[in-house]
Amino acid sequence: MQKRWDDFVATGAAVLAVAHSSLQVLREYLKTRSWSFEVVTDPDRAAYSRLELGRAAVWDYFRPKVLAGYLRAVSQGWRVRRPYGGEDLHQLGGDFVLDRQHRLRFAWRSADPTDRPSAEQLLEAIRTAV
């Protein structure tokens, strides 16, 4: 998303990332990132529950698709790191687009740890929701 930030800005959409870590952990994490969008934390995972986001099982990390995704990320410069204290590695994420009346118009609930929509899919969902 950051790489296509100008395209997101051009849609007029607001972008909000929700983390499930504690505020202290989120602050440490953001010291290593330079993001153009807002990031908030939901340590109790109330939003994750409300949006029906699942959890990964240990064996999900060993599926060929997931291993290939991690290998692709490493080949592009992503570095494996130790989890931050209190970080829940099994919580799956999602991507959602709301319209101006705050109605859900697009929902992508990750099926595994590497399952995310492309920036183009998100941009198209935003364009359609307007």
- The amount of helix comes to 25-40%
CATH architecture label: 3-Layer(aba) Sandwich
Range of strand content = 5-15%
Q: Strand arrangement, largest sheet?
A: 1-2
Radius of gyration: 15 Å
Return the structural class.
Answer: alpha+beta
How do the SSEs run, as a string of H and E? HEHEHHEEH
SSE topology:
Layout: H1 5-11, E1 16-19, H2 23-30, E2 38-41, H3 46-50, H4 64-75, E3 94-98, E4 104-109, H5 119-129
Parallel strand pairs: 1-2
Antiparallel strand pairs: 3-4
Summarize the structure.
With 130 residues, this protein is of the alpha+beta class.
Question: Which structural traits does this protein have?
Answer:
single chain; 130 residues; alpha+beta; Glutaredoxin; two-stranded parallel sheet; two-stranded antiparallel ribbon; 33% helix
How would you characterize the overall build of this protein?
With 130 residues, the chain is α+β, with helices and mostly antiparallel strands. It has one domain (2-129): Glutaredoxin (3-Layer(aba) Sandwich). It has helices spanning 5-11, 23-30, 46-50, 64-75, 119-129, and strands at residues 16-19, 38-41, 94-98, 104-109.
